[in-house]
Write a structure and sequence with these properties.
about 180 residues; 8 helices; IQ_motif_EF-hand-BS; IQCK protein
Length: about 180
C-alpha cells in the first residue's frame, strides 16, 4: 500500500518575517522612570518594579559585580566573598529610608543579628581565609617538619624522650608542679 504524503497546514509567512516584539529595556542605574510615581498599593507589578525596586537594586547589583571583581571571584572556583552578605549590607546602607544614618556593618544589622542567633554559620574553611603565600608557607613548614622527624637521629631522640617520660612519670610530675603553683 503506497503511503500518501502528509498534508501540512500552510505556514503564515507574516509571522516568520515580522519584526521582533519590543523588548523590555531596563532603566538606567539609579534612575526612576520619568513621570509621577504610582501608588505602591494599587500599581501593577511592572510599575512597582520600575519605580521602587530597580532604582535601588540595580546599583546594588553593579556594586556587587565590582566588589566580586576586586575579590577575584571570577578567577577561581572558591572564594571567601559571599555575594548575599555584600548585597544585604549594601541594600541596608543605601536604603532611601536610612539616608542620614551612618554605615552599618553586616553583622551589626538588627535583622542579621536575630537571624544568626537562630542560624549560626559554620566557620569559614582555613583554605579560604589564607592567601596563597600563607598557605604555601604552612605547607612548606609542615613538609620540612615531616622530613626532619624522619631523620634517624631525631627518631632516636624522640624514642629516648618517650622512654624518659614513661620511666620518670613526667606527666604526673608536671601535674603536681602545677597544682602546687596554683595553690600558692
Amino acid at each position: 500500500v503506497p503511503l500518501e504524503p502528509a498534508v501540512l497546514p500552510p505556514i503564515p509567512l507574516e509571522e516568520l518575517f515580522s519584526p521582533p516584539a519590543p523588548r523590555y529595556v531596563l532603566p538606567i542605574l539609579g534612575e526612576t522612570p520619568p513621570g509621577e510615581p504610582p501608588d505602591p498599593k494599587i500599581c501593577s507589578p511592572r510599575e512597582y518594579l520600575e519605580f521602587y525596586i530597580f532604582p535601588v537594586l540595580l546599583p546594588g547589583l553593579a556594586a556587587l559585580l565590582h566588589e566580586a571583581e576586586k575579590e577575584q571571584c571570577f578567577e577561581g572556583k572558591r572564594t571567601k566573598f559571599i555575594p548575599c552578605d555584600f548585597l544585604t549590607e549594601w541594600l541596608y546602607n543605601n536604603n532611601p529610608k536610612r539616608k542620614d544614618e551612618s554605615f552599618t556593618e553586616l553583622f551589626s544589622i538588627p535583622f542579621v543579628k536575630d537571624w544568626l542567633k537562630d542560624h549560626p554559620r559554620p566557620p569559614i574553611p582555613i583554605s579560604l581565609i589564607l592567601s596563597e603565600e600563607e598557605a604555601s608557607i604552612l605547607i612548606q613548614s609542615f613538609w620540612r617538619g615531616y622530613k626532619v622527624r624522619c631523620d634517624s637521629e631525631i627518631q632516636e631522640l624522640r624514642q629516648w624522650q618517650k622512654k624518659l617520660r614513661e620511666e620518670k612519670h613526667i606527666t604526673e610530675v608536671v601535674k603536681k608542679f602545677w597544682t602546687k603553683q596554683e595553690a600558692k
